[in-house]
């Protein structure tokens, strides 16, 4: 008998029409009703409500609440399903991938684009698929199950605001497909061992900056006073301007002050190569840390996790560029 624990956190899946628009409103018993409709053979389902939030309101502290609930119940259950809003689902999936790194149980995050109580909803299919995957896949780690696909927690990005196929696996194969009650595993990730110790904690004092033509270098003065780490979504292969509005000098100033500056790209696919162009080489020479083909959601969560464990610049770089939960193929 497989034992599955469903942890409810809110989101569209349990939303109802309220005075100011859709907001989480279904009770845990009402949500549980839809799970029992898709009960799997030889599977016992338990339920617990952790919070009742629109995922826009989810914070890193909430990731810790979810991770600790899973950790506390890890010996009692064979798998876990988290019902969650879609807007920040990818951030939560990445955060849990680091906080629960090395877990030997299946952790599934799912939700819906349309509330479960609505006539035309994708929630019922996603609930059924999540149950099938959690009970039968025997794959360890954190996954998003949505629209018949299983995506690794560190590789998911929300691409669409309305369509059922809201999420995409970026720079990594889809893990599995679920159809007609059956799982087809396309890629089987292996458990990793990482060359450093970590505690279950997060430092949310990071800033994400999207570069754009005209960005004033003076902005870096604010960053140095209010954050412990900066992530820059650069242009193309990792380039930033060094003429007129010189952002490269701003990166160098931050790095010299001991603040880590992580460089990623605004392009969703194929990652970056900072050695290819002069505009990228200058960023690397200034001390910018390349993030290879990691996605932004994973970088944000990983940097928070790293900063909670070390403030040493060299160690921050080493940990950021060490693959964890298959978040990184190259740097």
From TrEMBL:
UniProt KW keywords: Hydrolase
A Pfam short name: Asparaginase
Binding annotation for substrate: 55, 86-87
Catalytic site: 12 (o-isoaspartyl threonine intermediate), 86
Domain annotation L-asparaginase N-terminal: ranges: 3-189
Keyword Cell inner membrane: no
The protein, known as: asparaginase
Gene3D superfamilies from the UniProt entry: 3.40.50.40, L-asparaginase, N-terminal domain
Cross-referenced InterPro entries: AsnA_fam (IPR006033), Asp/glu_Ase-like_sf (IPR036152), Asparaginase/glutaminase-like (IPR006034), Asparaginase/glutaminase_AS2 (IPR027475), Asparaginase_C (IPR040919), L-asparaginase_C (IPR027473), L-asparaginase_I (IPR041725), L-asparaginase_N (IPR027474)
Organism expressing this protein natively: Sporolactobacillus nakayamae
Enzyme's top EC category: hydrolase
GO terms of biological process kind: amino acid metabolic process
Taxonomic superkingdom: Bacteria
Record-linked CDD domains: L-asparaginase_I (cd08963)
């Amino acid at each position: 008998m497989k034992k599955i624990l469903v942890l409810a956190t809110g989101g569209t899946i349990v939303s109802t029409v309220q005075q100011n628009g859709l907001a989480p409103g279904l009770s845990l018993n009402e949500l549980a009703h839809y799970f029992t409709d898709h009960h799997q053979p030889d599977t016992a389902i338990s339920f617990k409500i952790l919070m009742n939030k629109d995922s826009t309101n989810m914070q890193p502290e909430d990731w810790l609440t979810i991770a600790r609930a899973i950790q506390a119940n890890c010996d009692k259950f064979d798998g876990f399903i988290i019902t969650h809003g879609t807007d920040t689902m990818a951030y939560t999936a990445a955060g849990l991938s680091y906080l629960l790194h090395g877990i030997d149980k299946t952790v599934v995050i799912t939700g819906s684009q349309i509330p479960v109580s609505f006539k035309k909803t994708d929630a019922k299919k996603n609930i059924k698929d999540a149950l099938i995957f959690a009970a039968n896949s025997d794959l360890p780690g954190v996954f998003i199950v949505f629209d018949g696909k299983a995506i690794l927690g560190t590789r998911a990005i929300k691409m669409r605001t309305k369509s059922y196929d809201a999420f995409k696996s970026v720079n990594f194969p889809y893990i599995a497909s679920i159809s007609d009650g059956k799982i087809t595993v396309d890629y089987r990730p292996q458990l990793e061992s990482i060359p450093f110790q970590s505690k279950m904690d997060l430092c949310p004092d990071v800033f994400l900056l999207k570069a754009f033509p005209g960005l004033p270098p003076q902005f870096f003065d604010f960053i140095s006073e209010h954050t412990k780490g900066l992530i820059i979504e650069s242009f193309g292969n990792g380039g930033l301007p060094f003429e007129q509005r010189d952002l490269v000098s701003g990166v160098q100033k931050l790095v010299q002050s001991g603040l880590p500056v992580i460089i990623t790209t605004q392009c969703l696919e194929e990652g970056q190569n900072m050695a290819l162009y002069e505009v990228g080489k200058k960023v690397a020479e200034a001390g910018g840390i390349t993030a290879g083909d990691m996605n932004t959601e994973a970088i944000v969560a990983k940097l928070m996790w790293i900063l909670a464990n070390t403030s040493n610049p060299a160690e921050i770089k080493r940990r950021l560029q060490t693959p964890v939960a298959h978040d990184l193929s190259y740097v």
